[in-house]
Amino acid sequence: xxxxxxxxxxxxxxxxxxxxxxxxxxxxxxxxxxxxxxxxxxxxxxxxxxxxxxxxxxxxxxxxxxxxxxxxxxxxxxxxxxxxxxxxxxxxxxxxxxxxxxxxxxxxxxxxxxxxxxxxxxxxxxxxxxxxxxxxxxxxxxxxxxxxxxxxxxxxxxxxxxxxxxxxxxxxxxxxxxxxxxxxxxxxxxxxxxxxxxxxxxxxxxxxxxxxxxxxxxxxxxxxxxxxxxxxxxxxxxxxxxxxxxx
Length: 247
Fold this sequence. Notes:
Residues 178-206, 212-234 form the 4Fe-4S ferredoxin-type domain. Keywords: Iron, Iron-sulfur, Metal-binding. InterPro entries: 4Fe4S_Fe-S-bd, 4Fe4S_Fe_S_CS, EFR1-like, Flavoprotein-like_sf. This is 4Fe-4S ferredoxin-type domain-containing protein. GO terms for molecular function: iron-sulfur cluster binding; metal ion binding. The protein has 2 domains: 2-167, Flavodoxin domain (Rossmann fold, 3-Layer(aba) Sandwich), CATH 3.40.50; 176-230, Alpha-Beta Plaits, CATH 3.30.70. Helix 1 links the parallel strand 1 and strand 2. The chain is globular. The protein has a 6-stranded parallel sheet. A two-stranded antiparallel sheet has the order 7-10. The protein has a two-stranded antiparallel sheet with strand order 8-9. The model has no long low-confidence stretch (mean pLDDT 95). It is built from 9 helices and 10 strands. By secondary structure, the chain is of the alpha/beta class. The longest helix has 23 residues, at 123-145.
């Protein structure tokens, strides 16, 4: 059984690739558990459970961490987590394991999507990261089948500082809806609203309106076909990421 949480598609793809090896059923955590408020019985009774999610500021998105910390698994004998990241994950997996004990953990490097702070990776680098990731997730799938206790996480430099000092500051002062807006050219298609994994965007009179539950995943920015959804002035002259362009 694999639960995944994904905004721009990287973590969904990783979950799908692992499932191809393990032949597990996968569930979209955002749809099944967060939006509907229901945990499927097959998840509660899973003997082996994997969780795949993106790293946000060197930790799991708070909606994922909160959900996992409350998840009751009566029959689970082996639980693992796989996080996707543009580079490193700090001590994010260690911190998560304090709320959701893990038998194994991996990080998988995928194209960077947090364009308020960074530029998009070049097309060449995106292709290379995805090619490397495919090899990595197949290896992860084999380890899961054997229930190996593996901890292959790229923490990077200043790992503790990033996760335990920078992340809380990031969550307190940066992660909010303030700054999201639409430039001229919006066609009222609603794809930004549909792409939001936490249902934080509503269409009002043909215009997107952001609520108070933003997690800064940038799904709405990347999904906009007209490239008019922006975050402050930091995304206006930057590209947009679509995983399908590199598969």
